[in-house]
Write a structure and sequence with these properties.
two-stranded parallel sheet, alpha/beta, 18% strand, Spore Coat Polysaccharide Biosynthesis Protein SpsA, Chain A
């Protein structure tokens, strides 16, 4: 693994039950710039928010524990941040580091595993269509986060057996709503380690279900009240059409091709996501 020159590192322990605290403490005796904090409220959303609160710099790089930055990661993130005003967050190229080869056609569903390879030209993401970077590797402007993102998010992240995600996109939508830009920076690179069990059919289908159910809640977050019903209906009908077309196009590969089945799952659960959004809204009112 290449060495990355990170000057300050904060480990956020999200209420873990392993030896994370002891391991960090052992390394702290060798490196004074390593900090540790414990976030007892379970969920990636709370852990990331705590990390940004505890940070002491203008820019904060968020890295999941299975994401390995390139050796020049810090230099490239700093260089990009200094040349793009109004940037609230940015990410770059995230390649997959697979324990076992992925299935044929995996490129069509790779984004669900936080893989982003969008070319070599910097460009703005499109929050309106939920085309956004994952938080597996995300650099955020600390003040933009603190002034845009609520302490109590709508989505908490994956908890226990639940695979419901969306908490990373929620953060970026809040920033975008406040006028901050979200960029793709191809010079900022990392690799995402993907063990073989994360390519199993059952895991992929569960992962995609959790991601797809958040489509409507995210789309409706800043939609005017009078327009929510229209947007919800479009999501249902649009994904129903995709489901029918896809099932006809790949009718001989259904239940035989994991990638095709994952795409079918995405359309199906996205179609049902407005009903999940309604459930969330009722829960918030009570």
């Amino acid at each position: 693994m290449k060495r990355c020159d990170i000057r300050k590192l904060l480990v956020v322990d999200n209420n873990s039950s392993d030896t994370t605290a002891e391991i960090v403490q052992a390394y702290q005796s060798q490196w004074s710039q390593l900090r540790y904090c414990l976030e007892r409220q379970q969920g990636a959303a709370f852990a990331r928010h705590r990390g940004v609160q505890e940070a002491q710099s203008e820019w904060v790089g968020l890295l999941d524990d299975d994401t390995l930055p390139d050796s020049n990661w810090v230099a490239e993130t700093w260089a990009f941040a200094q040349t793009h005003d109004q940037t609230g967050a940015f990410s770059g190229q995230i390649s997959g580091q697979f324990e076992t080869p992925p299935p044929e056609g995996f490129k069509r569903i790779r984004s669900f595993l936080a893989i982003r390879e969008r070319g070599h030209t910097p460009h703005l993401y499109n929050p309106e269509t939920l085309v956004l970077p994952p938080a597996a590797m995300l650099v955020v402007h600390r003040q933009a986060w603190l002034t845009s993102v609520p302490a109590q998010p709508l989505m908490k992240g994956r908890l226990g057996d639940s695979m419901l995600g969306g908490e990373d996109f929620e953060v970026l939508l809040h920033m975008h709503q406040q006028g901050w830009q979200i960029w793709y920076a191809p010079s900022v690179k990392a690799s995402h380690y993907i063990p073989s069990w994360r390519l199993e059919r059952s895991y992929l289908l569960s992962l995609i279900q959790g991601a797809s159910l958040t489509i409507a809640p995210l789309r409706l977050m800043y939609t005017p009240f009078w327009k929510k019903g229209i947007v919800g209906a479009r999501i249902v009908l649009g994904n129903l059409k995709r489901l029918i077309v896809h099932s006809f196009k790949y009718r001989h590969q259904l239940r035989r091709d994991v990638v095709v089945d994952c795409e079918m799952a995405f359309f199906f659960w996205s179609m049902l996501s407005p009903f999940y959004a309604l459930k969330l809204a009722l829960r918030w009112r009570t």
